């Protein structure tokens, strides 16, 4: 039972990070833009101490941050869009109608490779960050997509419920295993009896010489 409690405490300590997707540029916060990698993170005034990526806790004012260490993306003009995810199979489907925000092509990542911009999410829902990079001579064109959710969404609550269910199942399994183990006896061992030399002599039968003398 003690093992199950300790396991529950340890797993509960990591649940907020996995459920709310709060982290500083983990692998799941990275999108491929052609052969290059570009990380996306977001910060909100309501949770200023957290950096989010796959899920933003609330709608409202948000600072989105793009970051790359690769020189090719730094040298290319990039167009940035926030699309409403309405189930489109391709980002090109009804592009303008689904665009909630757009920044025209520019070398935003020139220099340090980091760029941030503000956007006010007006409603909860699912969104796609779209980055389109085109070289100045037009010979190279890359596109990267990153899906994320904002606020209260069904998919988010399902993921939280599944995480909680897995936690409960594992904790119960450990508790059940401990419960099946037989309890070890706690009594002390009887001390080895110590016989005195006098008792030992009296316990031995008399020798033959002693019988004749009698």
Put the structure in a nutshell.
This protein is α+β, with helices and mostly antiparallel strands. The protein has helices spanning 2-20, 71-75, 95-98, 154-180, 197-203, 208-213; strands spanning 30-33, 36-43, 55-56, 60-67, 78-84, 99-106, 114-121, 125-134, 141-150.
Give the name of the CATH architecture of the domain at 22-152: Sandwich
CATH-wise, what's the superfamily of the domain at 22-152? Macroglobulin (MG2) domain
Q: What proportion of the residues form beta strands (DSSP E)? A: 25-35%
End-to-end C-alpha gap: 72 Å
Radius of gyration equals 35 Å
Tally of DSSP β-strands: 9
Q: Tell me the overall shape.
A: globular
Helix run count: 6
For this structure, the CATH topology of the domain at 22-152 is Immunoglobulin-like
Look at the structure and give the mean pLDDT: 76
Sketch the topology as an H/E string, one letter per element: HEEEEHEHEEEEHHH
Into which percent range does the helicity of residues fall?
25-40%
CATH C-level label of the domain at 22-152: Mainly Beta
Residue ranges: pLDDT <50 for 5 or more in a row? 1-25, 196-203, 209-214
How would you sum up the major sheet?
Answer: 5 strands, mixed
The neighbouring-strand order within the major sheet is 3-9-8-5-6
Structural class: alpha+beta
Polypeptide structure, described:
This protein has 214 residues and is an alpha+beta fold. 32% of the residues lie in helices and 30% in strands. It has 6 helices and 9 strands; from the N terminus they run αββββαβαββββααα. A hairpin with a 6-residue loop joins strand 8 (125-134) and strand 9.
